[in-house]
Write the structure tokens for this entry.
Amino acid sequence: MLQLDNFKSVIDKYKVIFFDAFGVLKNYEGLLPGIEKTFAYMEAQGKEYYIVTNDASRSPAQLAESYHRGGLTFISPDRIVSSGMLTKEYLDLKVKDGIVAYLGTVNSAHYIESSGLKTLPVSKIDSSNIDKVNALVFLDDEGFDWASDLNKTVNIIRKRTIPVIVANTDRAYPLTVSDVSIAIGGIAAMVESVVGKQFIRFGKPDAQMFMFAYDLVRSHMKAGKHEILMVGDTLNTDILGGNKFGLDTVLVLSGNTLAQDVQARITAMGIVPTYICESAVISEDELGF
Amino acid sequence: MLQLDNFKSVIDKYKVIFFDAFGVLKNYEGLLPGIEKTFAYMEAQGKEYYIVTNDASRSPAQLAESYHRGGLTFISPDRIVSSGMLTKEYLDLKVKDGIVAYLGTVNSAHYIESSGLKTLPVSKIDSSNIDKVNALVFLDDEGFDWASDLNKTVNIIRKRTIPVIVANTDRAYPLTVSDVSIAIGGIAAMVESVVGKQFIRFGKPDAQMFMFAYDLVRSHMKAGKHEILMVGDTLNTDILGGNKFGLDTVLVLSGNTLAQDVQARITAMGIVPTYICESAVISEDELGF
Amino acid sequence: MLQLDNFKSVIDKYKVIFFDAFGVLKNYEGLLPGIEKTFAYMEAQGKEYYIVTNDASRSPAQLAESYHRGGLTFISPDRIVSSGMLTKEYLDLKVKDGIVAYLGTVNSAHYIESSGLKTLPVSKIDSSNIDKVNALVFLDDEGFDWASDLNKTVNIIRKRTIPVIVANTDRAYPLTVSDVSIAIGGIAAMVESVVGKQFIRFGKPDAQMFMFAYDLVRSHMKAGKHEILMVGDTLNTDILGGNKFGLDTVLVLSGNTLAQDVQARITAMGIVPTYICESAVISEDELGF
Amino acid sequence: MLQLDNFKSVIDKYKVIFFDAFGVLKNYEGLLPGIEKTFAYMEAQGKEYYIVTNDASRSPAQLAESYHRGGLTFISPDRIVSSGMLTKEYLDLKVKDGIVAYLGTVNSAHYIESSGLKTLPVSKIDSSNIDKVNALVFLDDEGFDWASDLNKTVNIIRKRTIPVIVANTDRAYPLTVSDVSIAIGGIAAMVESVVGKQFIRFGKPDAQMFMFAYDLVRSHMKAGKHEILMVGDTLNTDILGGNKFGLDTVLVLSGNTLAQDVQARITAMGIVPTYICESAVISEDELGF
């Protein structure tokens, strides 16, 4: 029988908690019932918390707003670290001028825009402006025509020697209890194998996500890696990445990894979380208020 | 300097010639000018010839017809071996009843139909008939909506433990002198990596293509592998596959592999053709008729 | 509960049976007790049978002898199809002269020798003879010093543009009930990724193994693919390869795939055997003689 | 014609310079003649410099000593960031007790030892102590018997669900002008594919290497990523990793990438350095002292 740890007892040992979003705080039906109590408890205890999420479809402000609409008002934009933010930092540092072509919604592109750079959807690239394209970014699986725009993307990348950025490493995401959807990371992997060039990927399990969050933590407090806990529902992103970065990790069973599979998967993959908990929800009884 | 072999001298040494289609007999502009003389010569010399092609978009009859329209009347349907034919053989032998769901045009599906099996495009699969789906086939990159039908395909394969067949291993194909198009083999590789199951692939360089052609040869003549020559423009399909099957191979420079790159590519990949020729076209001078 | 098929009833439906060796006829302790009764039954019924095995460590004669020593006298050398035989055919057809360098035992090299070709262990290749090396073959994980000879192999392949043949695709093989050993296929994959060239692999699940066996069958009888059954213990070699070639397949639970894992593995891999049986042993009761 | 940048002019624009070691500061013959002048210049200009190297065979102190022996006395241990240091940090943070089994020399293991953890070569693991093995580390390609210890490693990892750390991601390293040697990263990839579990890798191009160096920089000065330059000879480690972390990068042609190949490789891989320079050596003339 699987021995589960108590989530409240686990977080009591740490000063800072990193949360994955999907499968931990919310699922396809919305926020997990009761999850706001966990945040109220952390606030009361003076713990720091951050959302570390593979998502480039919206800005941190928009992501925060979606939590607020669901009733989780604790999450402010400055507590969110997304793969979209790493993409924006990359473009700010490394692409000085010209056009950034993108696959995704207009809204996803809006966030990565900065002074000097113009974003244009791949569908708007043609012989008149292709020479000014200095980077191409995979942002979101929506907002474009897959057949025509993916073929166009392949040919832009063949003709231009430019950095290609994948702003979300996930290959699929859950849509309903039984269905998944192909994510932009899966689409980008296909294009990469067709063109044979190496793309730049941002997202867990890559260390750069955790470092961005860790830098944010250290900008307003002193904290060592041993004082930070990563909470996630997926072994090969949240747990592998957190472990490798040197954090303790807790696998919750409210998302990608189900109770009946957890031991077999840990053994098969060789990825071992520090703790395993039912979910990140703390019950009213435990809180005592 | 690259030492080229004379194509006529090369084929003079063999009884049977296998030809790749795209990049050897035709390109995006149509048939190679003069290619019909090569076939006239082979006819005059009593040589056997076959087209061995990664193509599941049309039946052998339709493929032959397209050569006839271009003026190459030598190519009859019984001289064509396509990856679509292997797919049809697989379904005939291994799938006894139910629905074969497919991605491709209605025409591509027509050819693989057989008694007892019903083909349905992925777009027509829903909760009412998904339990009868006993195989899923990737036929062509056209004829379906990429975004909705690829997501649907992922979920059908997750729900049904059935064989998934990829009827063309190519990842891309040339569209114009400068542009390529993503092929159904590239799309299938993306879906395979998302669902994590193993698909069945038909097409060069796989030995089964060459065996199908070799069986066809032996059904009306005696011939050893050493009497057969494979002519192709692509090192890692035509040449690798031909070599591995035990055939002598000739790389022609009229398609995928350009004269200026050929030595570097052979060295980099470690795939060595028996001969290298400018093209499969025999000039009028050489023919002397 | 897993519904198992009766092995005797299954083979009763076919004219020809292909058997994998390890995990089906024998394991690390020797021949499966009672397996000779299965062969006696097939003889009595006039069924044809062949051993189809990923093994290049010995010749068919030596492989047959090892069955005879164990008491299974039915298996003659002409009923064995090994990946070593495909390697030999390749060298006979495609390498005309010079040296074939190899990794393996002296005995494994003995079998692939033929007129005109000299085999030499990698350890004997130096600046005086490297220019005559026209092929390199991975035969067996024994018979050489891994550290020095694998480094030497890497450098021979970097310097010579020659075919590199892997005579056994397996990555590991069982040694005892709890331990495995790295196979020559795993070693070759490492060397391939270090040098970045494409090797030629012989062994299941590749169609060429099954074709070699099928050609052997047809050389002394008439048989269609639907009359042949492949018996194996491994989903992604025996069953995947048999299915793809168009044969019906039976997975036995006496080797690589255990009863408690079989359903989960079939679902995870998407590889579906036609039948599942306890083992290839037919009990005395069933035989009635 | 390739337009090269002047190395001195390039580094004049940055406050901090990160150097790869092999191919940049030294090659198989020792230190690059004149490289000490580059360091004298940086000292004179008050620039910060660090060595960022995929090496777990020795401690920073031993690495520094080897530069001193060669006459490059500027490089102190606190200016070295190695993949071995990341490995040590991982073990300190994540493995509390028990045995760390390793592949490598005794010296390589000495450095990763810490209070509470005992290191033991894989050859010393047996049934009496395997239950105490809480991590396994690939350190160096020397110091062990490849055949017996790699097979033992496979079986330890199959039996124990523990983190497996690869302390150097390189697959090969140059030995002489014409020969390479398989590196521990190549060996680890083979073992990973045989056991099917996911290992933890430290080394360029992974962001964690650059972050470790960046944290070191910021511990004694204020510096933004745009003020740091990465100097390397390899596109898919130094340049890809530096670019992705947001640093400007310079490719030098004194190591892995040769002048005649550089444009073709950049185009093929799609990895674009900010600058390309002959080497990191500044000539006496330029220095003017």
